[in-house]
Amino acid sequence: MEKIIRIGTRDSQLAMWQATLVRDLLTANGHTVELVPIKSEGDIDLVTPLYEIGVQGIFTKSLDLALLNDRIDVAVHSFKDVPTQLPQGLLNAAVLERGPVKDLLVYKQDTAFLDDPAYTAHIGTSSIRRKAQWLRRYPHHQLHNLRGNVIKRLEKLAAENWDAAIFAAAGLERINVRPANSVILDWMLPAPAQGAIVAACRENDAFIREALAPLHHAETALCTGVEREFLRTLLGGCTTPISAYAYIRDGQLHFEGNLCSLNGDASFTVTRQSAAGNTAGMGKDAAEEVLAQGGREVIEVIRNVQH
């Protein structure tokens, strides 16, 4: 009897888009696939700010449990949501080719408020990383908690008396809902692995590992691997304002990483460059430089605030 590959996914429009992409790629390779929607903790509680929930893998835990309990064979995630330490028995089997990486600003009227130091703009975002970077650049602005899937956040922005909100470009563009009144934030450093999709499975499932292998994009895996090593060394997650981005150009891997204090008044940035075939330890080395610059004290303050 032919095996049906069960793909677990969150049930938001974006998550379903990502899972459908993996399904279509597997189907094109001759596999029979079905999607299994699963609610995550992060989708159920849309009120509490993520940093207050403080749970590593809040958007991935339900799918991890379904994998471990053999309810599904593959879990598809936005790679930036995946903790750097996976549950025992699971592995990231395929990192797909990366999509748009940057954040973007969706604004109500225009962006004139960005150039007016006397105006207190109201900006929506649930990301502690985006808040910290925004406040470093615009310390006089007011930030507001914005939770929910992409569609709900766009609706919330429309309903509130805010000037703008910050989104990941990939999230809006993949499901074709990026408004015309939006602009890429070139200066904002993204979350580690932002724009990448990963398919996870059980370590001992040789059939699924083999099925997912053709979907793996080595360059994306290399770049996100350096970014996640930076994150892991700083012991960061959704509750720490850590940013990182690596890309390859002309055979060289370029890396930039950053740690901010919660209000953006302290910021530590590091850059690295190396041949793409010689990047072992790059993320760890960059993170240790941040810690030595004063990042360790900033992380300690953040932990004390959140506990």
From TrEMBL:
A Pfam short name: Porphobil_deamC
Domain Porphobilinogen deaminase N-terminal: start-end pairs: 5-209
Gene3D superfamilies: Periplasmic binding protein-like II (3.40.190.10), Porphobilinogen deaminase, C-terminal domain (3.30.160.40)
Every Porphobilinogen deaminase C-terminal domain range: 222-291
Pathway(s): Porphyrin-containing compound metabolism; protoporphyrin-IX biosynthesis; coproporphyrinogen-III from 5-aminolevulinate: step 2/4
Entry EC no(s): 2.5.1.61
GO terms under cellular component: cytoplasm
SUPFAM superfamilies recorded: Periplasmic binding protein-like II, Porphobilinogen deaminase (hydroxymethylbilane synthase), C-terminal domain
Cofactor: dipyrromethane
Keyword set, alphabetical order: Porphyrin biosynthesis, Transferase
Catalyzed reaction equations: 4 porphobilinogen + H2O = hydroxymethylbilane + 4 NH4(+)
EC supergroup of this enzyme: transferase
One GO term (biological process): heme biosynthetic process
UniProt-recorded Gene Ontology molecular function terms: hydroxymethylbilane synthase activity
Family as reported in the entry's similarity comment: Belongs to the HMBS family.
Main function: Tetrapolymerization of the monopyrrole PBG into the hydroxymethylbilane pre-uroporphyrinogen in several discrete steps.
Subunit structure, interactors included: Monomer.
NCBIfam families: hemC
Protein name (record): Hydroxymethylbilane synthase
